[in-house]
Structure formats: C-alpha cells, structure tokens
Design brief:
Three copies of one chain form a homotrimer. Chain A has 354 residues and is of the alpha/beta class. Chain A has a twelve-stranded mixed beta sheet with strand order 6-9-12-15-18-23-26-29-32-35-37-38, with helices on one face. In chain A, strands 7-10-13-16-19-24-27-30-33-36 form a ten-stranded parallel beta sheet, with no helix packed on it. Helix content of chain A is 16%, strand content 28%.
C-alpha cells in the first residue's frame, strides 16, 4: 500500500484513551504482531497473542486500555477500548482510499448505446460497452472494460470491477459487488441428443441477482433455460464458482471458491458450501445446511445438517469412517488371522465336524 | 425478459389444433406448471405432471390435443399435437429476439490490424482487437471486447461473446459458439526443472476447434507444446473447464462444468465427463465412456464403460463399495466381537490348544 | 502454425553433423514420429521410439548421430549430437516468431492516466486501461485490453496477455508472464456474520508477485485482508487456480490447474500440488511436499512428504487403502462366513458354552 499515516493522524482518527511512547515512523502497512516490521501498525485483537506484544517490531500497536507493558524505542502504543473496533475504523478509512468513489459520468472511451439509460449519478469507466436498452442505476460504478448486454438492468450503488460481463436481459439489484471477470448470463448447458448430435436447447431465461450480493473473480452464473437463475439477497460467492441454469440460491448463503452447482438445484437460505464442493442437478439443499470442502452432494440435504465426503455423508459419520478407513490394512490382517485361528481350531477339534 | 406475447400472437405463432378459455394477459415469461404466475406461459411436456395443470396459475398452457380439463378464469389452453415441440417453436422465436444478428461491419471503436482479413458479412463489435493476419469468416459475430491474436482464424457463422480471447495462430471452425471469458491458446503448462528452477518449455503449437463446438464461460484450452490441442466437431464444453496442452477431444463429447483434462490425454468420440471430473495426463478415454461428477480418472477407460469415484472404479462397483463403506463401523465391531468370541471359545476348550 | 522452414533453413539453423536423404517439403509443423505427416518435422528424443522412425511420414527427422537407418523417399534425416537439444533450438526460434516483441510505446486506443509512469521501453497494447499512479517497467508488454489499477506496479520484462486484470496497489516483479484473463487483487472472501447478515471485512492488503512467476489463464489471486498475498519467485501456476487472501506461496512451487488454496495458508518452497487439489485455510505445507491430483489437504504437511486422497493420507498408505477398498465386498462376505462358522462350531460343541 502507498498509504502513509503519521502518528498524529492515527491519534486523530482513532481517538485513543491514552498513548504510550512515540514514533517518528510513517505507517504504510498493517500486520500481525509477529510479522510486523518498522513502519507497520499492529494490534492485539485476541488476548492469546499478548506475549507477542513485547517482541513486535511494529511502530504503532493498538492495545486494550488496561494493557500493562511499555513500548520499545520509536514505538507508539495506542490504548483503546476495543483494538479490533479501532482496527476496523482504520481499515474502513483505508478501504475508502483504495476504492475512492469516482466522479459520476461516462468516460469518453466507453461505447454506450443511445437508448441505454444511465443514471446521472452513475460512473461508466473507460472502455465499457453498454448495449441497447440497458439501465444503470444511481451511484453504480463500472470500473473499466465492463460489458452490459441488451436490456440488462443494474440497480443502485453497485460496483462492477474491470472485465465484468453481464449478458442480455439479466438483472442485478442494489449494492451488488462483482469482481473482475465475473460472467452473468452465459447460456445454460442444455442439449438434446438426436441421431448422434447434441442439439442446443435455447436458453432464453435470465440471471437475477438480488441486493447486497458479492461475487468473486471469474465466477460464472448461467442464464435459465426459461424463467430465471436466481441469487438471493445478501449471498456471498467466492471466485471461480459455477452456478448452472435454473439454479435458485437463497438469501445469505456462502459459496466458497470453485464450488459447482448443477442445473435446477435449489439452495435455501443460509446454506454454506465449502470450497470445491459440487451439487448435482435438481436437488434441494435445506435452510442452513453446510458442507465441508470437496463435498459431493448427490442427494437432498435436510435443513441445518452438516455434510462431508463424496458422495456426502453426515459429517460425524464421514469423519468416523475416515478414521476407520485408515485402519483397513489392520482389519484385513485381523480377519485373515481370525480365519486361520478358526481353521486351526476346527482341525484340533476332530469331534467338532462330526 | 422484456418479451410480450398476446394470446393472439401465440395462437398465430403456434397454430394450435384448438383453444379453450381466454386470457387478456400479456405473456412475458415461461415457467413450469407449479411455478407459473399470471402472465406466464406453461406447458405439459411430461404426462406425470398432469395433476399440476388444474392448479397452475399460468395464463396460457400448452397441452396435448386430447387433454380433458377446463381452464380457470382468465386462462387460455392451447391444444397442440406436441406441447414440447410447440414450446421449442416459441423458444426459438424468443431466442432469435434475444440474440438478433447484428448488422455486418466493423465497429469504429474496434482495433483491427490493416492486414487482418474480415469477411464483409462478419460483425466485429465494439472494442474488439484483431491482430495482424487474423481471419474472420462470413456471418461470424464478435460481440464486444473480443481479442483475436496474430494469424488466428475464425470460420463462418461463429458467435464469440464479450471478452473471448483467441490467441496467436489458433483456429476455430464454423458455427462455433464461445461464451464470455473463454481463453483459447494460452501456453501449455510445461517446464523442465534444472538446478532448482523451472525452465519454460516453449509452447509453440495451436488450439484447433472444429465445427459446431460450444464452449462455456471462462473455460480455458491451452495451446500444444507443438502440433495441436484439438476439439472435435459437435463437442459441447461447459463453464470453467480446463483442457491442457496436446489434449485431443473427439467428436460429440460432453464435458460438464469445472472438468480438468491434463496434458496429452485423448478423449475419443461421445465421451461424457461429469462436473469437476479430472483426467490425469497421457490417458485414453475410449469412445462413449462416461463418468460421474468429481470422478478422478488415472487410468485408460475402455469404450462404453461408466466410472465413478476418485480414483475411479466401474460405476456399479463404486456404488456398492460406497454402501459398504457406510457399514464400516459395524464391520469393525463385528470383527472385534468375533475375535472375542473365538478367544473365549479357545479358553473354554482347554483341550483345543493341546 | 503458418511457419515455413525449408530444408536448407533447418540445416542452417540446426547445423547437423550429417544429413541423409532430401526433401522438397516446406516444414510447417512439429509432430511425434507416429503422428507426423508430410510437411512435418519429427525427432527421436527417446530411444524407445526408435522402431517408429522407419514408418514415420515426417519430411524431416532429427536423429542421433549414430542412427543407422535410411530415409524414405522425399525424407531428410538430420543427424545431430542431441535431437532434443536441436528440437529445443528450433522451438525457441519458432517461439520468438510467435511472440515477437512489439515496438515500445503506448497504443493510441489505450486509456492511460496522466500520472501513470510508463517506461519508454514498455509496450502498452490496444484498449488497455492504466489507472492513476500505476507504474510499468521497461520491456514489459501489455498485449491488449489489460487493466492496471491505481498505484499498481509492474516490473521489467513482463508479458501480460490480453484481458489480464491487476487491481489497485498490487505489485508484480520482473519477467512475470500472466496469461489471458488472470485476475490479481480481487477482494479476499471475508465476512463477519451478524444478526443474520454477512458483513464485509475490508480487504485492504495487496497481491505481491515476485520475479519469474508464470500464471495461467483465468487464475485468480485475491488481495490480503491486510498485508499481502504473496507468490514467491520462480513459482509456476496453471489455469483456473484460486489462491485466497493472505496466502503465502514460496519459491519455485508448481500449482497445477484448478488447485484451490484457502485463506492464510502457507506453501513453503518447491511445493507441488496436483490438479484440482484443495488446501484448507491456515495450514502450512512444508518445503518440497507434493500431492496427487484432487487431494484434499486439511492438515499441515511435513517437508518432503507425498500425499493423496481426500482427506489426504501419505501416498503409499492411500494407495494401499484404495486397493483394499476394492476388496471390501469380499471382506464383508468373509466376515459373515467366519461368523457363521463360529456360530456353527459353538453349536456342535455343547460343552463349550458350559
């Protein structure tokens, strides 16, 4: 980061209860106590790291008001009610400087159809393409090289990073954050096989993204065969996720990186899928169900349950089986031994067979 | 969708054998019987859903000619020979309106090398880049922000959606549909390790895509070390698939989302790989072989076989083992019991050991 | 390839010890002995393929100096000290023609902030966007449609292919090769859940890529929560890989396609992860540790170890268990038989139970 906070600026921003020591350093980074170097700010967010304060090389350290130690030379302690909250205040300030809201308006290099409806408070960055009939709401920002297809609609207060693609007729709500390379509205993957060829089934539906969704870099969500592929409000999706046509994702779900959801499946609210998990088609994942990473989901999951493995089993069962699985070599040996002993026993008991 | 069909327009388009009832609604969506709302069109494509017709709220319903029920108020039944075929007719009409063929020509914002050969019937959309010596065939459409590298060749009747990248020297046949963010012709992943460093092996081959291939959003296909990475005619590839260098994919294969194929493997015709399946390098997957999702293929697969699991086993065997796997806790207990019983038996038979 | 080498040009370039035969063909491709067609060049790099030389249809064949056979009509043998080295010489020559260094300068269609610092020896291709304060070093090439965010820094001698996205404040060293669609610096995936909503944790750190790294198409590396997500020098990353926030990847690692690494994990130097492997968060993978494809890593791995399976086990153990796993149906049967035999034995030994 090229940020630069002086000690005085930090004191002014964070309004500590007290300070201890002093530093002439300009703060350009935030780092964990043990990783920090001169010029960094660090913090004691979790009491278990208290022993690391004494050795930290950070120039500024956020500490709870009752912290007892003394700073090193050229080190400033800021004693605050809640170091985590103070850090959050600082981070929000830095975030605002990282992503300053650009001035509204349309960059002269953007290619915007005459009948597109761009709110005067929206920002259309350089080399964006906005096709006929598309709408962009107030305070939305298209960073650069974004594509908005025909009749697509973007709500208010959205941020689309560079290289986002929103295809024809798709709809995005308010305060949606799309990272670079996201593709919304590519055709669903549907064919009918006829005389040895795969004949395309028209994919004429939409993608609809509700408010307050965030979608990670290079994630793809396909348009519906008809009707809509739908992502509910507040859901957060990581990078390189694939969501197939006609999928419904509920509100406030968490989909970790590289998850894949096959066509026509439904995730109810508050579902959490670990990284690289896969969901087969036409399933229902109940409210609040969770899975571990790499889980293979080939059955409906009841609400509130936790799953693991491929194909998935209830988490505790899968864990137990994974432990037993490691003992398979022993088990095979043990059974062989038992068989031998039993055979031996039968031999030494001639009457047994009579 | 912003589409709007009146009842009369639908009757005119679909030419039903008979109609029953009437609606004043304008049809803007297609939906399944149970999901449909007023203003939607629905259909009875599969007899098993017949009980859902009575309760559907769709304004227009496509039904087989011999259907017996009566419509609700403000509901129109269209009785046709084949509801699925009628639906397909309607969908094709809608699809044509979603993706109207743009006028041919080169958008003034595109950057086209003077020696690129663009057919006069091709459409080069806004902010495309076409490098030296590249060729674009008749009736091909590059939607927007597409990149075509030096000496690359694109056939006739292709659609490349926004943000497609076709690298230097790669070749695409006729009627190929590439979705947003597809990358064809990045370098294959090849290094020789020497004195602790990975030295790049030049990747000087091509990617060659034959006719009638469709490739999903953000899929990547790497150029060959030399010669070609080759995708056969009629093959359909979903989103976020990775195909390594020197891979050969046959004709009419289906590769579901997030599949990965390592370098130099060969898929014969009509291979079907489920989502997130992975193929190791230098393997041959026989004609018509299939795998389930998340399958790990580390061996050649015989033609016509069906596989599951990682590492993969024949589908039926893998299914059976997955059932037994869940009974492992029981098996371990049972073996312990047997061992105890046998030990007990030996104890109570002092002569046995003599 | 549109390359064309005459026999004389090849002789001039490769300086063979001797030649045998002759060809009038113009060489446009390189191919394996068994795949080669007239007009191709082939080579005997591995003695085990020696029997294929007699049948090859290649017009030119690179052979070891002591090779005994005779060429076919219109076929030229080039006898060299080391056919693989001669091939490498040829490939390097072809590579240079595939990726000729473009003239330095800024394409007039690029949108470059007035305060960006572009070295006069750098090449900024068409339709690139370079935001305020960004720096591009000498001899670096941005092919086309590349995005460089505010204050981002790119070193010397880099190649960024079309459609690369480097976000605000991220840093790339020297001789880094990024393939099309790479996204560096999207927000890390971090939220705090509060009253049923996921509240975004600001992601204000960087991505830092050291020298001589290569990153494959559509791979994404997220910026740190604070401090940095870091890729060490000489590491090679394949396509569609996902690296989460605050990950540290050491020097000279190899990450195959579709690998996913969760937040805050550390890979030491020379780690090798097979395709589609997944690493959970906050783990340490020791120096030189390796995994097979699709491995699920949910524990720290000791240096120099080799792993397989999900969840992973030491490679040899996992292999053994996979063999035994296939014998589970037999094991269940055997245990049932033992139980029956034991029960029978007890029955025939009435005294045993006394």
């Amino acid at each position: 980061m090229t940020l630069a906070f002086s000690a005085d600026e930090l004191i002014s921003l964070l309004a500590p209860r007290a300070t201890r020591g002093a530093t002439a350093a300009t703060i350009g980074q935030i780092a964990a106590l043990k990783d920090a170097r001169p010029g960094d700010l660090s913090f004691l967010g979790n009491p278990k790291y208290k022993p690391e304060v004494a050795a930290t090389r950070a120039s500024v350290v956020l500490l709870p008001a009752d912290f007892a130690g003394e700073p090193a030379p050229d080190q400033l302690f800021l004693l605050v009610d809640n170091p985590s909250a103070a850090l959050a205040t600082l981070c929000a300030r830095i975030e605002a400087s990282l992503w300053p809201r650009p001035a509204p308006g349309i960059h002269p290099s953007a290619v915007v159809a005459p009948d597109a409806v761009i709110d005067p408070a929206a920002t259309i960055g350089p080399l964006c393409v906005i096709e006929s009939g598309a709408q962009i709401g107030p305070f939305s920002v298209l960073q650069a090289q974004v594509f908005i297809g025909r009749q697509a609609r973007v709500g208010a207060g959205c941020w689309f990073m560079s290289g986002v693609h929103l295809a024809t007729e798709c709809v995005v709500g308010d305060r949606v954050r799309l990272h670079a390379g996201v593709v919304l509205g590519a055709d669903g993957f549907g064919y009918e096989s006829s005389t040895g060829r795969h004949v395309k089934i028209p994919q004429i539906g939409q993608v609809v993204i509700d408010d307050d969704v965030e979608i990670g870099a290079n994630t793809t969500i396909d348009r519906a065969r008809f009707s809509r592929t739908h992502i509910g409000a507040g859901t957060k999706i990581d990078n390189l996720v694939m969501i197939g046509h006609n999928v419904t994702v509920g509100r406030h779900c968490i989909l970790c990186a590289q998850v894949g959801i096959s066509g026509s499946s439904t995730l109810e609210d508050y579902v959490v899928l670990g990284g690289q998990a896969g969901v087969a088609g036409h399933l229902t994942i109940g409210k609040g169900a969770k899975t571990d990473g790499q889980t293979g989901i080939n059955t409906d999951l009841a609400p509130g349950t936790f799953w693991k493995g491929s194909p998935c089993l209830p988490y505790q069962l899968e864990q137990r089986i994974n432990v037993l699985r490691q003992r398979l070599p022993d088990l095979f040996r043990k059974v062989d031994t038992l068989a031998a002993e039993l055979a031996e026993l039968k031999k030494t008991l001639p009457t047994a067979g009579v």
